[in-house]
Design brief:
The longest helix is centred in the C-terminal third of the chain and has 10 residues. The protein is of the alpha+beta class. The N and C termini lie far apart (about 200 Å). A hairpin with a 2-residue loop joins strand 9 and strand 10. About 15% of the residues lie in helices and about 25% in strands. It is built from four helices and eleven strands. The strands form two sheets. Strands 3, 4, 5, 7, 8 and 11 form a six-stranded antiparallel beta sheet that branches. A five-stranded antiparallel beta sheet has the order 1-2-6-10-9, with no helix packed on it.
Length: about 230
């Protein structure tokens, strides 16, 4: 928690333009009689510290009765209105000739409260707004790939017609044997008829045979008979 000034009668001033309120310590050697507040642009050193972040910079000073700036020696309580739609990230104090300081702060509604060690430039730094980009278009699903057409089976090739057997070569007709030529009769060769002439039946011979006793015929009679015939 930010410690409130433990004084009975702090010097409290509110800037009507910016709405900044400051409670100065009554322990200051120079009495604070007024408040001077202005919104200013960041100088080069402040820009380097902010690094492109969004911020509102205030130049705050207490003044004396003559309107001159008072170099305060005691802490003061500061209340600064902030953008209600933005989130405060940091309160920076930029002392002259020194490194920037990040101060502790509290937020009450639309007001940031912190303790200022000295008066010079103060920056209310806002968090970068979350830029909600357009909704990413829903990636369409991959269209279903059509089924690959079934490759038709190769048509059955008709059986090759059977090659007919070569017709049997008919047996060569048997050449008839040359008929045996009858032997030409030799001029000196006797025919069968000549070799065994059929003898005519000789009744005389038959008669002789009947009357001739077996084994009694003499060679002489036979020859005589043959010669007679």
């Amino acid at each position: 928690m930010i410690a409130l000034l433990k004084e009975d009668k702090p010097a409290v001033f509110v800037d009507p333009v910016t709405g900044v309120e400051v409670q100065f310590s009554n322990l200051e050697t120079t009495a604070i009689k007024g408040l001077k507040v202005a919104k200013v642009e960041a100088n080069q050193a402040e820009k380097e510290e902010l690094k492109g972040r969004e911020a509102t910079i205030f130049d705050i000073e207490g003044v004396d009765a003559s309107g001159k700036d008072v170099d305060t020696q005691h802490p003061s309580l500061v209340k600064i209105p902030v953008d209600k739609d933005k989130e405060v990230e940091q309160v920076l104090f930029f002392p002259e000739g020194q490194a920037p300081q990040s101060l502790a702060f509290e937020r009450e509604g639309d007001t940031v409260i912190f303790t200022a060690p000295h008066f010079t430039h103060y920056a209310i730094v806002y968090k970068a707004a979350k830029t909600e980009g357009p909704d990413q278009p829903i990636q369409p699903e991959e269209p279903a790939k059509p089924d690959q057409p079934v490759q038709p089976e190769e048509p059955t090739k008709p059986d090759q017609p059977a090659i007919p057997d070569q017709p049997a070569i008919p047996d060569q007709p048997i050449q008839p044997e040359n008929p045996t030529k009858p032997e030409q009769p030799d001029g000196n060769q006797l025919t069968p008829e000549q070799v065994n002439p059929t003898k005519p039946t000789d009744p005389l011979n038959q008669k002789e045979k009947r009357i001739r006793p077996s084994g009694s015929t003499s060679s002489t009679s036979f020859e005589s008979l043959f010669n007679t015939i």
